[in-house]
Amino acid sequence: MKVSSKGEYALRALILLGNHPGKVIGIQEIAEKTLVSIHYLEQLLLQLKKLGYVTSKRGAKGGYILQMNAETINIGEVIRQLEGPLSPMGCASITKYEPCALEEGCQLKPLWTLVRDTIAYVLERTTLEDLLQNRVTKLEGDASVAIKRDA
Question: What is the DSSP letter of 127?
C-alpha cells in the first residue's frame, strides 16, 4: 500500500480544519497552510464533502469546515475511501482480491497479509482526534505503534 499525495493532502486538510473546530477556513488559507495547490485542493475537498467529512459555506467569508467530530473520523476509513485497499498486493487484499498464478504454495503471501493486517490495525485504530492530540507514538523498546489515550 502506498498513500499517494491525494491521501496525504486530504489528511493535511482534515487536520487543519480539525485544529480549528467550528471555524470556516477559506480555500486560499487551507492551500497556504497545507502546501497544496488550490486546484488540487478543490478536488480533494469536494471528495471529502461528498464523503461527509467537511461541509462548505459560500460567499465572501466562505470556505470549509469540519462536518464530523474529529473523534469519529477514522483514518483507515478515510484512506480506504480515497486510496482504495490497504493491502500491498492484490493477492492479500480483502476488498479487492486479485488472484495470482503463483498463489498456491506462495511463501510471500503470508508476508503481504501480515503487512496488510499491520497497516489496517494502526489506521483503523487512529482517529483524526488522535492526530490532533499527537497520540500516535512508537512504544519505547518495541517495534509497535500505539495510540495513547487517557483512560
Answer: B
Residue 82 has pLDDT above 90, yes or no: yes
pLDDT, position 40: 96
Reported as a pLDDT band with limits 50, 70 and 90, residue 148 is: low
Report the C-alpha gap between 22 and 143 in whole angstroms.
37
Domains of the chain: 5-66 (1.10.10.10), 85-147 (no CATH)
- Between helix 5-18 and helix 27-34 the angle, nearest 10°, is 120
Helix (H) or strand (E) run with residue 57 in it: strand 54-57
Nearest CA to 131 among 16, 1, 3? 16
